[in-house]
Structures are given as structure tokens and as C-alpha cells.
Amino acid sequence: MRVDPAARIDGHIGVPGDKSISHRAALIGALSDGETRITRFGRSADTESTLAAVRALGAGVDELDVDTVVVEGVGVRGFRDAAVDCGNAGTLARLLTGILAYQDGRFELSGDDSLSRRPMRRVTEPLEQMGAHVDATDGHLPLVVEGAELEGIEYELPVASAQVKSAVLFAGLGARSSTTVVEPTPTRDHTELMLQAAGAHVTRRPGSVTVQPAERLHLPEVVVPGDISSAAPFLVAATLVPGSTLTVHDIGLNPRRTGILDVLERMGARVGVLNKHRVAGELIGDVEVSAQPLVATRIEAAEVPRLVDELPLVALLGAFARGTTEVTGAEELRAKESDRIETVTAAMRAIGVRITARPDGFAVRGTPARPRGGTIDAAGDHRIAMLGAVAGVVSREGVRIEGAESVAISFPGFFDLLDSIRQ
Ligand code: S3P
User: 60 vs 99, 184, 220, 221, 398, CA distance in Å?
Assistant: First the structure.
């Protein structure tokens, strides 16, 4: 796939439903009694894996139209023996391991090569402390879960990970006593919000969340906000191409996800948030950005979870900003769909950007001139493919992306949408 430079980015767009929330809606719907109607379900390879998983586990899934899905739940303890292929979806693998830990049955989880390299010990350790029987392959997929009686725990997260927090909270639904997760750095809270909406007893304090065992859940409807992580590549393109203005409508503005907007503003972009409203606990609104000259910024550990999936794009923003942009405290990037410190650094170098990899992040030297362009290897990672596409739009000579099809992991219509806003 070749992406040519654009003279300008212009328009009003929407993006598919949030991937994190779509996974959770399908899983919590499957654990509920009765039907859960999910509107604006974020269709992608990853969320297809989740629909296939809940089907295999015994829930009903009725796909009414492209983005309306009705899940017929089996109840909190209703899953039956199954082998589940999680594909590329880390969120599915981690959250489901927590849910299966207390189900009455034997479950096999597998995934693709990338997912099979990603760490699972971070979830199996706390679950085993609760009494779970999980047999993983040297801390990785494939793994086997044999349902067990669980005790609640108080667990302090050693890594700032919403996936780990969620796995423990889900296991807590089926434990004999209450479960508390302490998180020194706040991570996305979609699980807590949706479990509350489904009637679970969830108590939130600064720095921790407690869930009580649940007999039944009931979640009639979920309206999924647009995915800010899917909007981000377009927002960044519009920030970088002079003369551009872009509005992305109805995107999720949960404050634990909006780090990229804060970073854009800090770097000097003009960012407007309009029509803010709340739907079932989640904040939604329209975001308008226009291109401005940028200055460098620094991102530290406390901010990382608020834009963890957008950090590859920060490297490109840094390439245009006056000064050196630094990302620190982001060693988690090495445990994503690719080692994103290495793949981002390689991608930026390939188009002529001056970037240095560090153990926990990277540093980028900015210049106001467009980078030359070149060939970027997506390394099978959807976020790197999208970074390559934005790099093509803002480059002098365009970018060839190897493995561009990986965008379908989170956003199958990505390239068509990009075509629709370029001048
Ligand atoms: C996710 C949490 C993040 C994020 C991932 C989705 C989630 O991972 O990178 O894309 O839905 O909970 P970690 O919580 O492991 O950092």
C-alpha cells in the first residue's frame, strides 16, 4: 500500500465504536441474564474474535446489521467447556482468562503468533492467588483454565494495565468474597463503568476499585462511543498538514483515554471539544483540530496509560515540533502487538526522522520540514500500519507500507476514511 502526501486534510468524519468498550459489551452481555443490545459495535478482527469466543462459550450472538449486535447472555456462571481462539486480541485473552477462572468447565485459549508472544503471567499470577487453576505455556498462550472456587483478594497492580485490572475484577464476580484492585496509576475504567451499569456492586475510591461477588447481571443496552484511538491518526494528520481542519464526531472522551488531546494542545495544536454529553456513564463529544506549528513535549509514566495506544503517533508529532520530544516510563510499549519502541523507531528512521530508542520510550528531534518518506514495515501491528499511513500523508514523497492490511485488527475501513478527507 502506498500513501501519497496530502496538500490538506479537511472534513467531518465518524469512526467505528470503541474497541475496548466493544470487547467488554460482548463479554458482559454474555455474562448477563437476557439480551444485551449493542449499538455502534466496533467491528474489527479483534472484536470478531470476541463475538466468536462468547458464541463458543454458549452465548447467543445475533448480528442485526453492520454495527448492531444482540448478545443473549448465559448468566454469570453459565459458560460451558470450549476452545477459544483469541486471534490477535490481547484484551480478549486477558479479560476472558479472568472470567473463566471461576466457570464450571475446562477451557483452552490460544492466539496468533503475536499474541502467543505477549505476557500472560501478569494475569495468571493474581488469578492463581485467588485459587484459579491456569496452565500457561511458560507464561504465554496457549493456556488451559480449569474452573475453580475463588477467594477474593486485594491486589496491587505491578504494571499499569487495564487488562490486568479487568481480569482480576471479572474473576472477583465469581469469588466467595470481595476483590479489590489497587492501581498506583489510573488506567482506563470501562470495565468498572460497565459492570456498574450491569448492576454489579462496584465501589470506586481514589487509587482502587472493589467488586463484590455477583449472582446476576443485567445489561439491556450499550451504545458504544467512537474510538478515540481510531480517531487519533486522523487528528494527528490534520494537526500536521498546514491549512487543515478536521472534526471527528461522537468520540469517547472518557478522561482516562484523552491523553492524546492534552498532548496535542500542549504541543500547540488548536483542539476544540463540542457537544459533550454522557451515555451510560461514558463521556462522548465531537473533537475539532486545526493545524498549527508545534513545540516539543515530554510524556512521563503517569500520563502513559491515558494515551498508551497513541504513543506511536506522538513520535510523528515530535518529528514536526520545535525541540526534542521525549516519551519516558513507557516500557509497556514493548509488550504490545509488536515491540512498539523498536517498531516506531524503525518506522521513523525509515522516513528520515531523527529518533533514538530508549529502554522505556524514545526521543525525537523535530524540524518544521516534512520528512522525506520511504518504506515502513508494519510488523503485523495495526497501530504501526496507521502510523505509516499518517506518515505518508505528511511526508514529502509518500510512504509505502508493508503489511498495511493489519489495520483490519482494529479498523477495517481505515484507508477509505483517510482517502475521504485528503485534498
Ligand atoms: C486495553 C488496555 C490497554 C491497551 C489495549 C486495550 C483494554 O492495554 O493498550 O489496546 O481494552 O483494556 P494494557 O491495559 O495492558 O496497557
Answer: 17, 38, 14, 15, 46
